[in-house]
TrEMBL record:
SUPFAM superfamilies: Actin-like ATPase domain. Transmembrane segments: none annotated. This is ATPase. Keywords: Carbohydrate metabolism, Kinase, Transferase, Xylose metabolism. The keyword Kinase applies. InterPro entries: ATPase_NBD (IPR043129), FGGY_C (IPR018485), FGGY_Carb_Kinase (IPR050406), FGGY_N (IPR018484). The keyword Cytoplasm does not apply. Pfam families: FGGY_C, FGGY_N. It comes from Microbacterium gallinarum. Gene3D superfamilies: 3.30.420.40.
Length: 545
């Protein structure tokens, strides 16, 4: 099992004949999301997006090339085609229909990062993902210049770092965008971006719901001597809010997605969004005082704000919902990947010892065992830092499991420490948000590690000292979230996004809500105190190993 699996087992069902006819008529919405480890596709009924008709997926992995995290562009298209073909096969198997058209389409992908193109549309460098931490000088300068936190992963930080490093490609940049913006451009010919994803490229003005013009001017002055004539506003994609027109699938785009030629062009596309935006949609967390935690290869919390933050914090960056409302984001580069690696180790042990447990059974057994661990994990510490982690002041990652001689090493404590470790850096950022007095009515969680009911959800509630809800619907996938945004195109003139989600999509949704366990709250606080102190070990490990 991967950390960001798409779950659809609880989605609503439709009469088979009606479902087949809806697919033939194109009364559907298709969402595709390029996640960190899987590219997923989800087809839903347009007038009831809680009804999932078919799914498809394809596994892929990032690469560490020349000390930068990247994905090959050829892998982007091979993966998209494979995920779409898998969806087409699922449509055929479930409904005995050949998929030839969709009513609407949306593309989502990992937020932030850097894809730069010249005037001929040629890629100038390898795709630089959100995971890279080489932009520390750039982010520091821009944060001071703008008076807002500019994280290392933001696209503008990547561009300015390239300027500082005097990379030769800078003079040829004609357009730069995110992965979702790139794929959307190739499918439609439109250089646009949903406002949520755009807010991770360059700061957004909350009033105009567009890039902040004062900051654009400041940036141009900053680079005027190093990159003469470069005007950043001309290089950025157009900002579009949820429900806005973002183009149609062209014949060339249809052929890119479906080389078989069966898919017809013409479907409208919603604005492309980042995985943070689709996570908010998938958990009905776009209204003020709502928030969500998404746990996959990375882990991040999104909290929709009622008012601006009082101070600038390097642990928090301000982005937006897909409708343009301000959001405080706690983004951690490292999520459940290290946990999944340990589960894989135990899975292999089960196999070589003659067991016949399925990988999912091993996962669940280990998670259940964690419930018997001590509230503070018995003094054990687990660091999940495969990559650098800005919140923890780590330029590079070194996964570590650490204990003292008096700690209590049991399987239950070990597994609880590993799950706590996924939430460790996130909790450091959330403590800063608590200090700002930000109020939350509810926090939702989604991602593969929440599949085992009552375990990771309970521990997260203890870590945040707040109730945590998990939806009992298909809403645990970003591909489903962008499919919902695609379906919203037909409703946007009548309903704001939060009302559409509340009244049309989640009206009958069921949620499992877990309150903080009175022992887990002080237990996790003790763990986090040791975790914070032990970061010195992590920092020492980077130059030593």
């Amino acid at each position: 099992m991967t950390p960001d699996d798409l779950h659809t087992s609880a989605s609503r069902t439709l009469d088979p004949a009606a479902a087949a006819q809806a697919i033939r008529d194109g009364r559907t919405a298709l969402g595709i999301e390029l996640g960190s480890t899987r590219i997923k596709a989800c087809l839903v009924l347009a007038d009831d997006p809680s009804t999932v008709l078919a799914v498809g997926s394809h596994a892929w992995e990032n690469r560490f090339v020349d000390r930068l995290w990247t994905y090959a562009i050829d892998d982007v298209w091979a993966g998209l085609q494979a995920a779409y073909a898998d969806l087409v096969a699922d449509v055929r198997d479930r409904h005995d229909v050949a998929l030839e058209t969709v009513g609407a389409l949306g593309v989502s992908a990992m937020m932030h990062g850097y894809l730069a193109f010249d005037a001929h549309g040629e890629l100038l460098t390898e795709f630089r993902t959100w995971r890279n931490t080489n932009t520390d000088r750039s982010a520091a300068v821009l944060s001071e210049l703008f008076g807002v936190n500019i994280p290392l992963r933001w696209s503008i930080a990547h561009l300015y770092q390239a300027v500082l490093d005097e990379e030769p490609h800078v003079t040829d940049v004609d357009f730069f965008t995110t992965l979702a913006g790139y794929v959307h451009w190739k499918l439609t010919g439109r250089k646009v971006l949903g406002i949520g994803d755009a807010s991770g490229m360059f700061p957004i003005d909350a009033e105009t719901r567009d890039y902040d013009t004062r900051m654009l001017e400041k940036f141009d002055r900053l680079i005027s001597e190093r990159a003469y004539g470069l005007e950043v506003a001309a290089l950025l994609p157009e900002v579009v809010v949820a429900g806005g027109s973002a183009g149609e699938l062209t014949a060339e785009g249809a052929a890119l997605l479906d080389p078989s030629g069966a898919l017809k062009p013409g479907a409208p596309l919603c604005p492309p969004e980042g995985d943070a935006g689709t996570g908010m949609v998938a958990t009905n967390s776009v209204a003020p005082r709502t928030g969500n935690v998404s746990a996959g290869t990375s882990i991040f919390a999104m909290v929709v704000l009622e008012r601006p933050l009082a101070q600038v914090h390097h642990e928090l960056d301000v982005v937006t919902t897909p409708a343009g409302d301000p959001v405080a984001m706690v983004h951690c580069n490292n999520g459940a990947s290290e946990l999944a690696a340990w589960v894989g180790l135990f899975d292999r042990f089960a196999t070589v010892s003659g067991g016949d447990l399925h990988a999912d059974d091993v996962f669940e057994a280990l998670f259940r065992e964690a419930l018997d661990g001590e509230p503070d994990a018995g003094g054990l510490l687990a660091y999940n830092h495969l990559a650098g982690e800005p919140i923890a002041d780590l330029q590079e990652g070194r996964p570590l499991f650490v204990r003292t001689p008096e700690s209590r090493l049991t399987l239950a404590n070990f597994m609880r420490a590993q799950i706590y470790g996924v939430f460790g850096t996130l909790a450091l950022g959330m403590r800063v948000l608590d200090g700002e007095g930000v109020a939350l009515d509810r926090m939702f969680a989604h991602g593969g590690m929440f599949r085992t009911a009552g375990v990771a959800q309970r521990f997260l509630a203890g870590a945040l000292d707040a109730p945590v809800a998990v939806a009992e619907t298909a809403s645990e996938g970003g591909a489903w979230g962008i499919a919902v945004l695609a379906a919203y195109l037909a409703e946007a003139s009548d309903l704001p996004l939060d009302a559409y989600l509340r009244d049309r999509v989640f009206a009958d949704a069921e949620f499992d809500v877990v309150e903080p366990d009175p022992e887990d709250v002080p237990g996790f606080a003790a763990y986090l105190s040791r975790y914070r102190a032990g970061l010195a070990v992590e920092r020492a490990a980077v130059p030593a190993l």
